[in-house]
Amino acid sequence: MTDVDQGARAAHPEAGGLDRSATETGREPAATRMGRTAPTSATSSPVPARSWWGAQAWLPDGPTVDVRLVADADGRLIDVQTGVQPVEGDTVLPGMVLPGFADAHSHAFHRALRGRTHDGGGTFWTWREAMYDVAARLDPESYRALATAVFAESALAGVTCVGEFHYLHHGPGGRPYGDPNAMGEALREAAAAAGIRVTLLDTAYLSGGLDADGHQPLNEVQRRFADADVDAWAQRVDALRPDANTRIGVAVHSVRAVPAEHLARIGLVAAGRPLHVHLSEQPAENEACQAVYGCSPTKLLDRNGLLGPMTTAVHATHLSGSDVATLGARGVTVCLCPSTEADLADGLPPTGPLLAAGVRLCAGSDQHVTADLLAEARGIEMHERLRTGRRGTVSPPALVEALSPAGHASLGWPEAGRLEVGAPADLVAVDDYSARTAGTDPAQIVMTAGTADVRTVVVGGRTVVSGGQHVLGDIGEMLNRSLKPLR
Ligand SMILES: [Zn+2]
After folding, report:
1. Looking at residues 162-185, what average pLDDT do you find?
2. Which of 161, 194, 419, 468 is at 20 to 30 A from 151, Cα to Cα?
3. How many angstroms does the Cα of residue 314 sit away from the middle of ligand 1?
4. Could you give the 3-state DSSP secondary structure of residue 408?
5. How much distance in Å is there from the Cα of 250 to the middle of ligand 1?
6. What is the DSSP annotation of 201-232?
7. CA of 364 to the centre of ligand 1 (A)
């Protein structure tokens, strides 16, 4: 007897020929399974199903019909069969089964600003003041609670791995906590509790900003982001250890927040690990960099040896043709965050030229202004349409590539993000039969589906989302509870 996921549509002709009554009455509703008896951690849920069947799955060669996926006890795919029917013990997944999505650029605490920065217009810089207000209120306990809810919300969007660009390190006034990595550890625990993988991108933040006069002193809130010096930062990073669910990368906040004399050292600490950096998000950054260093931020990073295949440049909005060529020549990945770039009026990145130069693209939610990775991915193509007046620069398969394998590679999980033997069993089943997706060619589902269509999410063989519900229960309630003390 096959097991039917909560989200599998009984009436769907492709859902294994199951009848409606079996699906609707044969299973306990998701809401009843959760609530008061919810486990405290998604990774403490019962032993997961080890085999799945989907009428459609996105294999490395693209959409494929009638696919069985089998994982071993370590949550790794050991068999991928095509053109077969489900067998006893398989969990039948609804719709299109995609590899898990990587949210390659997240600041979990920015979620506290959603829906609260839209009055009175404002700019990137006034938004930043509001962000500093929230940062000032967080401690390891409240951050763990908030990030657990935020990462659970990400899981509902199909995110199975998050790159947390982590710069809120220390206590008020910049005083280190007893464990100087207490905030980073809170993020690690939050991801594990929410059932998703995390790459902790520990961020160097050493100056209060850059203007034509040079680097500025840190303000009161920024002191919480900064280590005493680059050695203290390197020491703190060295104390972070990876685990089965966590990998450690590093980040340069931006050329605004790290004086050039420290960049080469950070490159050495990064060696062999992912290195992320905010790049040219606003014209003011380029102008200050030109005034102080006589070159663009891209050129400054390149001169200091920071650009290479392990580097991800986030935003890369305001680039010269020469910057684009440099990023391509160094094999850099660019992470685009379309909802944030629109929300903060950043501008439109030169996506087509970046691809032509050889850059790999991935997608990020950044400030969590929305939680919809599928929308972030298609936003890459939609923004390029707005910039150029042309359609089709980034094809639907290229958007799936950005969502899954490219995003995972950017975060130091190169084995993840594809449905093939040896990869982790990270699966996202997307309803292709909903009001939003009805009639969609399966090969174009990334252009129509959104978070509401994500029915099942499996991370390393373990079910984290079923029937569109997170195993931790009511995530809206969790978010409301964790946001309250920050107001
Ligand atoms: Zn960011």
Report:
1. 97
2. 419
3. 7
4. helix
5. 14
6. EEEE---SEEETTEEEPP-TTGGGT--SSHHH
7. 9
Q: Is the pTM of this model over 0.85?
A: yes
Tokens at 125, concatenated: 């810089």
Contact (Cβ atoms closer than 8 angstroms) between residue 428 and residue 94: no
Q: Ligand 1: distance of its center to the CA of 179 in Å? A: 25
Give the model's confidence band at 117: pLDDT under 50 very low, under 70 low, under 90 confident, else very high. Answer: confident
Tokens of 435: 């009001």
Which candidate in 315, 318, 408, 470 is catalytic? 315
Q: Which of 366, 372, 426, 453 is catalytic?
A: 366
Dihedral of CA atoms 15, 444, 341, 230 in degrees, nearest 10, equals 70
Both structure tokens of 361: 């693209």
3-state DSSP helix/strand/coil percent for the chain, to nearest 5?
A: 40, 25, 40
Burial of 219 (0-12, 13-18, 19+ CB in 10 A): exposed
Distance 309 CA to ligand 1 centre (A): 20
| DSSP secondary structure of 57-120 | EEETTEEEEEEEEEE-TTSBEEEEEES----TTPEEEEEEEEEPEEEEEE-GGGGGGTTSS-TT
- What is the second-level CATH architecture of the domain 3-98+429-480? Roll (2.30)
* Structure-token pair, residue 271: 């060696």
Spatial contact of 161 and 102, defined as CB atoms under 8 Å apart: yes
Measured in degrees and rounded to the nearest 5, phi and psi for residue 463 equal -75, 125
Q: Tell me the residues surrounding ligand 1 (ion) with CB < 5 Å.
A: 366
Strand partners, 357: none
Known catalytic membership, residue 105:
no
For residue 456, give the amino acid letter: T
Phi then psi for residue 167, to 5 deg, are -125, 0
Distance 431 CA to ligand 1 centre (A): 30
CA dist 171 → 109, 112, 435 (Å): 15, 19, 47
Question: In sequence order, which residues have a C-beta less than 8 Å from that of residue 107 and are 6 or more positions away?
Answer: 164, 165, 166, 167, 366, 367, 368
Rounded distance between C-alpha atoms, residue 222 and residue 207, angstroms? 8
Respond yes or no: is residue 383 known to be catalytic: no
* Amino acid identity at 336: L
Distance, in Å, from the CA atom of 303 to the CA atom of 361, rounded to the nearest integer, reads: 23
Averaged pLDDT score across all residues of the chain: 91
The domain ranges of the chain are 3-98+429-480
pLDDT band at 4 (very low <50, low <70, confident <90, very high): low
